[in-house]
């Protein structure tokens, strides 16, 4: 049976809740990367974080709950970078859409291992407590939906269902990345970016003469 990890000399007896939660998230990611989500246990994660198993359950109800939190962290960080790229792309709505696509492409190769660990094991996010408002989504679909909705309001995009369109486009991107990462013959980023730019432009009704720009 696992024992409570010994406290290191000079280590404080308690930590702020946010710091302890971060320790557990980092420990979970390390264990998931090393052992895989299926083989990892709460005991492994608690040991990696240097805490008792009971401390884990003060913050997360299960390893799946922790994995869902890691997914949210990953998505929020990615979306912040993508939204920042769009915000600095200028006033042209075609350029803004291109900036969104290119920011996603720039991020995924550097986070390939992290993405594989977090998203090749399906989990259900815990429901909010009864009566509590659900957190607003901070994933790529929500980011693209916001961009499409703003472009529609500006008269630049012709899209009837922005959220559904965003979901379909993001799903296509996700599948593309999975295929590219496992097939070297498809790993031609400039060609892929151009193809995705054109797909997105057509999906939102940007004329082909604009979509063909370099």
UniProtKB/TrEMBL annotation:
Region described as Disordered: 1-20
Has the keyword DNA-binding been applied to this entry?
Answer: yes
InterPro entries attached to this UniProt entry: DNA-bd_HTH_TetR-type_CS (IPR023772), Homeodomain-like_sf (IPR009057), HTH-type_TetR-like_transc_reg (IPR050109), HTH_TetR (IPR001647), Tet_transcr_reg_TetR-rel_C_sf (IPR036271)
Concerning Pfam families, the annotation shows: TetR_N
Annotated DNA-binding ranges come to 41-60
Q: Where on the tree of life does the source sit, at the highest rank?
A: Bacteria
Instruction: Report the residue ranges that make up the HTH tetR-type domain in this protein.
Output: 18-78
Is Signal among the key words of this record? no
Q: Which SUPFAM superfamilies match?
A: Homeodomain-like, Tetracyclin repressor-like, C-terminal domain
**UniProt name for this protein:** TetR/AcrR family transcriptional regulator
Natural source organism: Actinacidiphila epipremni
Q: What is the lineage of its organism?
A: Bacteria, Bacillati, Actinomycetota, Actinomycetes, Kitasatosporales
């Amino acid at each position: 049976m696992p024992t409570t990890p010994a406290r290191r000399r000079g280590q404080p007896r308690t930590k702020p809740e946010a710091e302890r939660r971060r320790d557990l998230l980092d420990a979970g990611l390390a264990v998931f990367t090393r052992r895989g989500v299926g083989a990892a246990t709460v005991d492994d994660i608690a040991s990696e974080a240097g805490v008792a198993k009971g401390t884990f359950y003060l913050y997360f109800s299960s390893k799946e709950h922790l994995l869902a939190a890691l997914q949210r962290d990953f998505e929020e960080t990615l979306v912040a970078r993508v939204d920042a790229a769009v915000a600095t792309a200028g006033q042209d709505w075609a350029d803004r859409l291109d900036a969104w696509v290119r920011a996603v492409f720039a991020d995924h190769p550097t986070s390939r291992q992290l993405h594989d660990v977090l998203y090749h094991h399906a989990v259900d996010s815990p429901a909010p407590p009864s009566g509590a408002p659900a957190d607003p989504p901070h994933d790529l679909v929500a980011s693209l939906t916001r961009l499409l909705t703003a472009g529609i309001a500006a008269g630049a995009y012709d899209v009837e269902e922005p959220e559904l369109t965003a979901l379909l486009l993001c799903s296509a991107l996700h599948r593309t990345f999975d295929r590219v990462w496992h097939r070297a013959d498809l790993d031609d980023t400039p060609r892929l970016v151009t193809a995705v730019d054109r797909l997105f432009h057509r999906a939102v009704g940007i004329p082909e003469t604009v979509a063909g720009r370099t």
